[in-house]
Amino acid sequence: MSEDNGKNRDMSPGAADDTGSHDYFVDSTHKKNLQAMLLEKECLEKSRRFGISRRRFMTSSFGAVAATSIFGQMAAFSSKAEAMDGFVSPSEDLYMSVAETTRFTRLDQSTAEDWAIIESAVRAQGEGVVDTIKNMINACRGYHLGFGPDQFTHVTQTATRAKRDNASDEMILVCLVHDLGKVISNLAHADIIAGIVRPYVSDGSFYLLRHHMEYQWKHYGTYVLRPTNGRARYVGQPWHANAVRFSDEYDQKAFDPYYRTAPVEEFIPLVEQFFGTATPRKNLTHQLCIG
Amino acid sequence: MEPEFTKNNDRVTPRNDEESARTSSDSLPGKAAAAIAVGAVALGAAGEAAAFWLEPSRVIMPVAPAPCTGACAPQATEFQTIIDKEARTAFRRMDWSTPFDWLVIANSTSKLHDINTHKEIINLLRQCARYSFGMPVNVLQHCLQTATRAARANARDELVLGALLHDVGIAISYPGHAQISASIIRTFVSEDVYKTVLHHHEFELAHYGHRIGQSTTMRNLYLGEPWYATAAKFVDEWVQVSYDPGYDSYPLDYFIPLIKREFAEFTPEKMEVTMSDCFREQPV
Known about the structure:
The complex is a heterodimer. By secondary structure, chain A is mostly helical. Chain A has two domains: about 20-85, no CATH class; about 90-95 and about 110-290, Hypothetical protein af1432 (Orthogonal Bundle), CATH 1.10.3210.10. Chain A is about 50% helix and about 0% strand. Chain A has 15 helices and no strands. Chain A has helices at about 20-25, 30-50, 55-60, 60-75, 80-85, 90-95, 110-125, 130-140, 150-165, 170-175, 190-195, 205-210, 210-220, 240-250, 270-275. The two termini of chain A are about 30 Å apart. Chain B is mostly helical. Chain B has two domains: about 1-15 and about 65-285, Hypothetical protein af1432, CATH 1.10.3210.10; about 25-60. Helices cover about 50% and strands about 0% of the residues of chain B. Chains A and B meet through α2, α4, α5, α6 and α7 of A and α1, α2, α3, α4 and α5 of B.
């Protein structure tokens, strides 16, 4: 892999006063992130003025006063509606406007008419999946799990790298969603997100997402007592090359606060294209091991 | 503070669990904080204490579903501060990371798991109250009814949990909901419960497949599996009869201790479960 092809400028050092938190604070519209940014900026300014380190300033009493007033403001307008800015609220008519109601109380007493009603309601809910995915992307804001950049920056940076590498639309989408399962449960996040996107993508992408941790462990498995050669078992699979590319070139590199990550708005059309489809594949659980 | 999107037929969405008592009101802490902030100009230590007491991570998740769809509630709004205070790694690429970095990450991950995971599950369950698909019971009621039947049949805890969460994936997306639900509980339950939830749709089809022009014998794919009997009982006795609006289900409160207990354990070794079922041969 040649680094000097003009595509990847991510190794260039940032500006002198770049704190490293710039990227993922600036493109964040989330209120709490703005508040955190405010706090950080204020503390930085004041610590500069007093000529002490930021950490010392934070623990000093004046820093505590600044923090207190900002936390106070946060609590003051923490009404739920305002705190949830940036999330897509459910449009109730999408789910509630079912005119007819089924009659059965057990599935074995249901009729074909009942299932027609359910089918149309399910189709109506399907339009909401785009919002759900957007909300999950949004929920990653400020969600660090110990990593330097938060998960929102990580997934958008992964997608940006794929896009600048001229990857296919589906690969860019996979990069954008690959860690969203972490907002539910970190342990099985690969499995969860694979299950979520499976009806909307090809089987190759499904398996890529499902097993991406084993590919990632090549880079740090020794530190977490995991096999570093976990990917070897998938060598013959048709999606193996994609998974290698995803892991080595996009995912594992996407923790760089100095990288010029594209704003998430660039990728929203992709989300709408894939998850807004009227015909997701359904009921695939009986064919789990076809890859 | 009550949300406005409560449904008319939303009879089982609880209004008073033990968390609600500790939910902060919006104006009071703000005023208190302002007062303390003024006072703390003189007393820095008091300000520090106030900053501790008012930090948003102390705000407990509300009782109703978050006012958005899917998995979106707690992280961004409540844990911002606790997350911001944590140590973070500085590596820019994973292959430049050090063992110490992964200690930091493991620490943060397990802490957030403790704070967050059961709340996210409960939130997803509450989101399910939005969906009824034209049926007289909504998905949350269906889940509670299924879990109640399982509990009254003295099923083991993880099977009750499976019953409670077998449709929770609907809160995210219907077409893949069985697989989503199964994935969510996968690292917390044993293999047979996971498989039961994963394949419950194939077992369900025995009861209505002929009404929609599909096979009723899909479950025969799994005749040889050790979990076949469990799954058959799960679907036939608990899931498929749980569309009865007259049934007296336990409220969600009843199951919250179960959820907290079952999702309490954080075992990173379980991350390897995805390796175990499709591609069985060992890596060379």
